Amino acid sequence: MQETTSVAVSPAPAVPREKPRGRSLPRWLLVPSVGALLIWMIIPLGMTLYFSGINYNLLNPDLSGFAGMENYSFLWTDPAFWPSIFNTIVLIGSALVITVGGGILLAVLFDQPFMGQGYARLLVIAPFFVMPTVSALIWKNMLMHPVYGLIAKVMIFFGLEPIDWLGEYPMFSIIVIVSWQWLPFAFLILLTAIQSLDQEQKEAAQLDGAGPISMFIHIVLPHLKRAIAVVVMIETIFLLSIFAEIYTTTAGGPGTATTNLAYLIYSLGLQQFDVGMASAGGVVAVIMANIVAFFLIRMLSKNLKGEYEK
Amino acid sequence: MTPATMRTMRYTGTSVLAWVVAIAVFFPIFWIAVTAFKTEQQAYDLSVFFMPTLESFREVFARSDYLHFAWNSILISVGVTLLSLLLAVPAAYSMAFFPGKKTQQVLLWMLSTKMMPSVGVLVPIYLIWKDSGLLDTVTGLVIIYTLINLPIAVWMAFTYFNEVPKEILEAGRIDGASTWQEMIHLLLPMSLPGIASTGLLLLILSWNEAFWSINLSSANAAPLTVFIASYSSPEGLFWAKLSAASLLAIAPILVVGWLSQKQLVRGLTFGAVK
After folding, report:
1. Which among A254, B117, B172, B249 would be 20 to 30 A from A280, CA to CA?
2. DSSP 8-state class, residue A66
């Protein structure tokens, strides 16, 4: 059936530009990238799925064979599992609220004319380019240290009791560090979006007597909707795998206070060498990411269609 | 109050507020830069008035194999950038100028591979790398970074190629240019700024990547991210040395980031925000 239609359509030589004769090379140019990504997607993911269904512990090679859902049920009842899911969600949620909220406020502020705007912007986006291990250690040792840290010294100066940030409020501290790194990302994207807002539209609203607040709610926010959605989804995907910040500061502790899913999988797989259970955790992470990815890809595909119509 | 003074007041107010925020956000980096030039004793002072010294930098070089890690970082990020571009540019060229029915699906599928969280495949990758001798090698890290960044590279190159007027390439084709000639002599010169910013983004992402480097490398292939992580031991309390090592690690890529800030938005949002 399909063949007959294609036969019926293809002899139309009116559109020779669509298929230049003798040019199959352009198609082949896709193959290396597609092939590499295909292998990358299928093999490790397949192995994760496979390992999650067998008994596989590098420290206990006698134990082997099909495990069924055993790894999952062990993971389910692992005292660190539910806290790690909870911590992952708290970390992502808080960092999103702080970076998107702060990013919007900063973008509105930086959209106004002011002195040395370009230089101030360079300062604000800088943290994004700092490698995670550096930002984690600088915050931990030099800023948040309970005795010598800058914050402690400032608090003592004001007669306050210094706080052991990473000891007493470990999750809060991690959120601060992660938000500091990702605020510039949200800011930069939202600023770009806000600057694409039509000046005439703004002026028209001003002439209609719209104050700054109603301007923000009725004109700026709706215009930013798409950019905000993009920031939320891309950050979620990166924040789901936050690892280096936790590895270098708290190592998941105290207890399981800062163990997120990424750190739990690392510790199950590369510290306890329980490949089966770590893989079950990996499957959970992939499922969580897919839920977000579904929405992101749907949005980008709409965007892509718009691009073709242009 | 005249509208002119109102405007001046508003301008001044915005300037003050924006600069206070900017300085607050930048402060930790400023603090690294200041502390790096102190001695260990001075580092615990909050003072910013002191005789700058290069002692900590000398110590970092003397006590650790700093150049070894820096060289690994350079090798890895340059390797990833070149390899990714080599794979991505032809693919993006093919999809931008010879779109088929499946092009859209291919693009979205490529993106979907980026959505796979690294932790989801940590265990199998670790085991494959261990068995194939890729563990703790620069090649091993280049391969994995290229795979995780390839979708971004293809997308970014694709959005830039989409802006190149198709007529010019067609004219070249009618004049008898081969596919390679067309790509190298027509497309590349026209889209050089776009390819350059794609390269810069790849450079930044691979320089700062810390998940795979921590898990897949140790002494031999470790880049600066891993070297700095080694300061998480009590060593981290030697603030001046920590700062000196950190400053050297972040300064080059910070400059690259500043230079390419405008183009980054497109790359990081897959063209959704320009």
Report:
1. A254
2. B
